[in-house]
Write a structure and sequence with these properties.
single chain; 234 residues; mainly beta; Sortase, Chain: A; nine-stranded mixed beta sheet; Sortase_E; Sortase_dom-sf; Sortase
């Protein structure tokens, strides 16, 4: 049962790589991410005052296993990273320091036993609207996100990787239970940026500054969380 679950959960990570010439049809199943064009001469992604080392750290207080976990930026076919780390930032998607971006992080619901991936996103269904999520870049700048949406999508729905005009959002992805056939998605909006010296950066955002409230949606797995609590033996 465990090995079967591992095989199923592994399949949702994008088998294809992000490049400028491929198309979605080349993904042999699994959860597809749009093929994103890269910009020559440094690229737009790293040009907006971001650190050269794009490794991130992720803390989700609502999740028992995600605290200051290192998140590398890599493609979804990098199985070595999927085993070595709690989650990965999908190469070709945005970063916290960008004005407009979708910072897309995917983690295993079950994962690989005896690795850092094991059960890391098991309790992602406990993350609720209004909860905070913290991301830190390699320079020590901390970005606070507030959850505004939870939803479940099919394995071929790539809309959740899109950016939203004028927003920097964070997207977390894992599989649904019990059969891992769909994708549980949590999205959060950047509300505060604090640099390594402890002060707000010039890019600090608040909902009040923008004069709008994030959209509220119901819990994506409400009613199923109790049936799928973390096993005591794990």
């Amino acid at each position: 049962m465990v090995l079967a679950g591992v095989a199923l959960i592994a399949s949702f990570f994008l088998a294809g790589r992000l490049d400028s010439t491929a198309t979605n049809s080349e993904d042999p199943g699994g959860f597809n991410v749009p093929r994103l064009e890269t910009t020559t001469g440094g690229g737009e992604e790293t040009s907006q005052a971001g650190p050269q080392d794009t490794t991130l750290k992720l803390t989700v207080p609502s999740m028992s296993r995600i605290e200051d976990d290192e998140i590398p930026s890599t493609d979804g076919g990098d199985e070595a990273s999927l085993k070595k780390y709690a989650a990965i930032h999908l190469e070709g998607t945005g970063f916290p320091w960008q004005e407009e971006a979708n910072v897309y992080i995917a983690g295993h619901r079950l994962g690989y036993p005896n690795t850092e991936s094991w059960l890391t996103f098991w309790d992602m269904n406990k993350v609720g609207v209004g909860d905070e999520i913290f991301v830190t870049d390699s320079d020590g700048t901390e970005y606070t996100y507030k959850v505004f949406k939870e939803l479940t999508v099919g394995p071929s729905d790539t809309s959740v990787t899109s950016t939203e005009p004028g927003k920097n959002i964070l997207t977390l992805q894992t599989c649904t239970l019990p059969d891992y056939s769909k994708r549980l998605i949590v999205q959060a909006e950047l509300v505060q940026t604090v640099d390594a010296r402890g002060g707000p950066s010039g890019r600090e955002r608040t909902e009040a500054d923008r004069g709008r409230s994030p959209q509220r949606t119901p819990r994506a797995e409400e009613g199923r969380a109790v049936a799928w609590q973390l096993p005591e033996s794990a």
